[in-house]
Amino acid sequence: MLSPTNTVFQVEMLALKAAIEWANTTNEEVNIWNGSKSSLQALKSLNVKSKITQEAQMTLLKNARIRLGWVKAHIGIKGNEIADTLAKEATTDGIPASLPFPKSFLKKQLLQLSLSRWQAEWDNGETGGSVYSIIQKISNKQLHWSRECIQFATGNGPFPSYLKRFGLHSTDYCGCGEIGNPLHYATRCPLT
C-alpha cells in the first residue's frame, strides 16, 4: 500500500525492480515484459536520480541473463491483465511500502509553503501599499508591465512626491497646489 503522494512512475519502477531482483535469484535466462515505457526508458538512461531506478540498473548490470521488453497494455494479454489486477489490489490491500516522497511532490509542497508565507508577509507588510491596492494576491507568475505602469503603481517615478525624497525636486507639490503623487495626476489634477 502506497501513499497518495507517490507517483505512478515510482510504483511501476518499484514493481519492475522487484521483478528484476527476483529474476536475479534464478540461474536461468529471464524475459521481463513490462507495460511501462517510461520505466524501461529510465533503466536505459545514464542520468538517473531515482534510487529505485539506480538499484534496478545495478542489478541488471550484474546479470546479463535478464532481458527486458515492452508490451502494450490493456489489449487483452493475459499475463499483463493479471499483473494490472494485482497492482490495483496492492494499492489498497497490500503491505504498506515506504517510498521517499517524489521530488515533484516536495517541490509542490515547498512552492505552496513559500507562496503562503509570502502572501502573509504581503498582507501584513508595512511597505508596498500602493502596489497592494492594485495586486492583493501574490503570484510567482511574471507580470509584463511597462516601465510607466510600474512607476505609477509604486510611485517611484517622475512625481514631485518621489523626487523630493531624494533632493531632486524642491517640493512634493504639483503646480496646482496638491501633493504630486501618481493618484493625484491620474484622478484630480486639473493640469493633466
Task: Explain what this protein looks like in three dimensions.
- Helices cover 51% and strands 5% of the residues.
- The protein is mainly alpha-helical.
- The protein folds into two domains: 97 residues, Nucleotidyltransferase, domain 5 (2-Layer Sandwich); 75 residues, no CATH class.
- A two-stranded parallel sheet has the order 1-2.
Oligomeric state as shown: single chain
Q: What composes the largest sheet? A: 2 strands, parallel
Order of helices and strands: HEHHEHHHHHH
Decide which structural class fits the backbone: mainly alpha
Poorly predicted ranges: none
Q: How many structural domains in the coordinates?
A: 2
Count of distinct strands:
2
According to CATH, the homologous superfamily of the largest domain is Ribonuclease H-like superfamily/Ribonuclease H
* Principal-axes shape call: rod-shaped
How large is the radius of gyration? 31 Å
Q: Quick check: average pLDDT?
A: 88
Helix content: 40-55%
Quick one: CATH class of the largest domain? Answer: Alpha Beta
Strand content: 5-15%
Strand numbers in spatial order across the main sheet = 1-2
Protein name: RNase H type-1 domain-containing protein
InterPro entries: RNaseH-like_sf, RNaseH_domain, RNaseH_sf
Domain RNase H type-1: 1-92
GO molecular function, one term: nucleic acid binding
